[in-house]
Structure formats: C-alpha cells, structure tokens
Amino acid sequence: MTFVLHGNTPVYVKETCTLAYQLTAACSGSKRLSTDAFCVADCSNTTQGCIACGACFSGARAVTPSAPQQIVWNGELYEFGTTASGCSCATGHAAPPGAYTFSIDAYLTAEDAIAGTNGYTHRVDFTLPAPDGTVSVDLGFIGI
Length: 144
Hints:
Blueprint: E1 2-6, E2 11-16, E3 18-19, E4 21-25, E5 41-42, E6 58-63, E7 69-72, E8 76-82, E9 88-94, E10 98-106, H1 110-115, E11 120-128, E12 134-138
Parallel strand pairs: 1-12, 5-9
Antiparallel strand pairs: 1-7, 2-3, 2-6, 4-10, 8-9, 10-11
C-alpha cells in the first residue's frame, strides 16, 4: 500500500525516523493504529535479543508539486509486548479489509514542521483493499 502525498504548493511534513502520520479504522473510532514496528524485536523470535537503534533523522521533508512523496506501508498492524528477556517487541498481522482514515499534518514552513506548530491536518478516507494499492493524499492549501 502506498500513500502518495502531493499538493498545489510546497508544504512540509514532519519526519521522525519515518514520516509522521496516523491511521485509524472506522471500527476503532479515533484509536490510532500502529503501522510500523521500527526498532523493536519480533515477539515470535524467542532467540533474538533487544535491538539497539542509533539516532535517526528528525526534521521536515518537502512535498512540492514537482516532487510528491510516498509512504509505503506493508499493510500490517502491530501489537507491542515484551519478550521473556525484557525487550520491547511487536507482533504484526494483516490489516483486515474495511474503512480506514489516513491523517497527516502539513506545514507551510520547515520550521513549523520541525516544531509541530501551525499545522493543518489532512484526512483521507479509504477502503482496504485499495484500488491499485495506492491512496492519493492531497496536501494542498486553498487560497495559496
């Protein structure tokens, strides 16, 4: 599944290891679903120890009319737990077919994106499975 971010004017989205977005399911109300298991062990692997991750980029990524951005999601939702050795871990399972909402904040400046201020939340409702595995996310601002 690929979310394609595009717009009529340059905007910025926040990035903290990955682009910051939210996914909710119609059946879960406003509860945010976990769509990645970045930097944690797989709960089903009983021999794996804790994962030590280094620092990752934290900043803003530009989305322009000539350079849209993509967020690729493997279609799995994750539940988190702890391994027998005390490490954080996650178990993934395929997201069930149904209605979902993708949300992301867009900012007019990189500084606002980094600070998380003056953002505008863009929401797109879609159904899984999505046609062609793609969801278009318009980050355009009206009047700009």
